[in-house]
Amino acid sequence: GESVGLHLPTLSVQEGDNSIINCAYSNSASDYFIWYKQESGKGPQFIIDIRSNMDKRQGQRVTVLLNKTVKHLSLQIAATQPGDSAVYFCAENSLHYGGATNKLIFGTGTLLAVQP
Amino acid sequence: EAQVTQNPRYLITVTGKKLTVTCSQNMNHEYMSWYRQDPGLGLRQIYYSMNVEVTDKGDVPEGYKVSRKEKRNFPLILESPSPNQTSLYFCASSFSSGSYEQYFGPGTRLTVT
What we know:
Chain A is mostly beta strands. Helices cover 0% and strands 49% of the residues of chain A. Chain B has no helices and 11 strands.
């Protein structure tokens, strides 16, 4: 099927290098952030999350950094592998927008291309 | 296997012909949601449901309907599809309305001619 990555910014890295994917969020009142990975032809898959009372959170080969001062979020992938090739989305909660719980606002995504 | 399923995965239809995209989850999740994904616009929420018989509009509800008669199913209905509804649609679910980790289905590629 058509790739959702056709119109996205692209980060190209060599296999084994570290990748850093950046995201700017819009709402200073957001208190929860998630990174999703979307492989071609599949739905988004949860990677890691972070709450606004934290600056950093680590998972397996991934680290999320949150800078609330400049409303910036980054996802670091260590030792990038071909299987990491996908579109990566950040999402922020939107309790500020009408008070509805569990409503996420998604970024447009970044295509990560891993070169062997 | 815990999953969200959608049917059909691909659909080509004509303007005005009513269609339904089904969504089902087997995780006993209370919260379900529909999104559309368009190039350059990311994922936008169409409708969501916090529990059986409770549904509400998302950001782009025009031209869509939903129902939640059972906990596991959340069909998306297009009464009179138009070409601007050509998109990639995702259903998602989570344990509760207070749980942000959403599980997504595989997507439905809809083309309206």
